[in-house]
Amino acid sequence: MNKAGDGCVAWYHALTMTDVAARAGVSKATLYRRWTAKADVVADAVATLNPMTAPRYPGTSLRDDLLALMVQVGNCEGQPETVTATMEMARSHPDLYRTLSERSSTFVRAELSRLAGQAAAAGHAPLSVVELDVLSETVIALLAHEGGPAGGSIPRERLIRLVDHVLLVVLTGTRAAQ
User: Which of 5, 31, 40, 97 could disulfide-pair with 90, CB 3.0 to 4.6 Å?
Assistant: First the structure.
């Protein structure tokens, strides 16, 4: 880890809910009504810098919409420095890692659920809750694997392969036309 990353890790370790309450000008009790843990406060702060919002789906095909989602989720370019530093902190703080991972997983599952509904409306077999959960977990694992330990952006060609050979197969039973 670089010196900036080391400073961020030390900062997170030293941060207390008392510090946050004092900086916000509220009591600790008020703070705890909204957040139960430091990881939640930091994750919410990061979400204001890098909100997880649905991409602009082109609406031209299920494949194009899936690709738009994967490009957004797999792209780390242009993130504020604070977001990148927080991801570095998460590597050495399991509570923060768990919180950020859960939020990312929830976002991906919700978007995949919407797209699975689109596939079902087009006549494909609907996914069960278990199938949707497994698909979401698989997508997150593949994105984490492709992003590598540094959490880099995933090349578009790899995302296209994920969409064409995994997501479309699961959602429609067929691969994209080659």
Answer: 97
